[in-house]
Amino acid sequence: MAPKDKYTVILPTVSTHPLLTCPHPTHQVVQYNERRNLPIIIWLLNRTFTENDLDYEIIIVDDASPDGTIEVAQQLQKLYNPKHILLRPRPGKLGLGTAYVHGLKSATGNFVIIMDADFSHHPKFLPSMIATQKRTRCDIVTGTRYAGDGGVYGWDLKRKLVSRGANLVADTVLRPGVSDLTGSFRLYKKSVLEKVMGKTESKGYTFQMELMTRAVGMGYKVEECPISFVDRVYGESKLGGEEIVEYLKGVLSLWLKV
Questions:
Q1: CB of 7 within 8 A of CB of 154?
Q2: Helix axes 69-80, 34-51, angle to 10 degrees
Q3: 56 - beta bridge partners?
Q4: What is the DSSP letter of 22?
Q5: At a CB cut-off of 8 Å and minimum separation 6, what does 239 contact?
Q6: What dihedral do alpha carbons 56, 205, 213, 54 form, nearest 10°?
Q7: Element (H, E) at 226
């Protein structure tokens, strides 16, 4: 009998760029509002895995958030068992890409899930993503807002148009063959993620885009799973000209590297 699959969730309390997954306040490295989100997202993850009889662990990577995020995480670890909640804090603002690398070092699952901690990525979609992987035997399942019955909620028309435009630009320039390159709700085979991360050079908000682009270029099989993306529950949103310019620079940089 084959060993039971185990799923590692890497949950960084680190922000991404507003044009990518969730519209965090700025493109700065750390998002400091996750202490209020963390207890609920952990409860939802625990319920999802438990109800579906799935073995799991959650690795929380916090970059010394001053709002007490790590203290809340320590309480959650006691509540849910250190077997399921692993804390991997870092001393300062070291970036989103390195947060995933840091978390992956402690992962013991044969599958790794990357998602945000602010409810923009709801755990209720994980069973569908896992089922997609089992059915297709693919290497990566990526959540998509722009295929099937996927969608975006809580954004105004401007943000929706900008997000669509950002994906169109990325798809035209990088040609990864996925409908939502700027999304970051994904399920990876751990062995695949380790190999792709080893080739990835980005450390900031283009990290997720480069991961997917390189994975496709390396010949790994990618499947999509429709998800509903919801604006963050706690925290402000900010999207202006500076963020758009930085995003375009990031896509151009990836095109030159990949």
A1: no
A2: 20
A3: 7
A4: S
A5: 18, 19, 23, 158, 159, 162
A6: 10
A7: strand 222-226
Query: Token pair of 26, please?
Result: 């700025």
How many whole angstroms separate alpha carbon 50 and alpha carbon 6? 12
Q: Residue 21 and residue 115: Cα distance in Å, rounded?
A: 9
**Both tokens of residue 105?**
């070092």
Separation of alpha carbons 249 and 130, rounded Å: 34
Rounded alpha-carbon distances, angstroms, from residue 9 to 85, 89, 100? 10, 15, 10
| Contact by Cβ (8 Å): 111, 190 | yes
Of 13-17, 114-118, 128-132, the least confident:
13-17
The amino acid sitting at 178 is V
Both tokens of 41, joined, read: 């997202």
CA angle 152, 155, 160 (to 5 degrees): 70
Tokens describing residue 64: 């010394």
CA distance 50 to 17: 32
Cα separation, 79 vs 238, whole angstroms: 34
Distance CA 70, CA 65 (A): 7
Mean pLDDT over 152-180 rounds to 63
CA atoms of 173 and 253, how far apart (whole Å): 11
Q: What percent of the chain is modeled with pLDDT above 90?
A: 43
Contact assessment for residue 12 and residue 2, using Cβ atoms and an 8 Å cutoff: no
Is residue 116's pLDDT more than 70?
yes
Higher pLDDT pick, 226 / 160 = 226
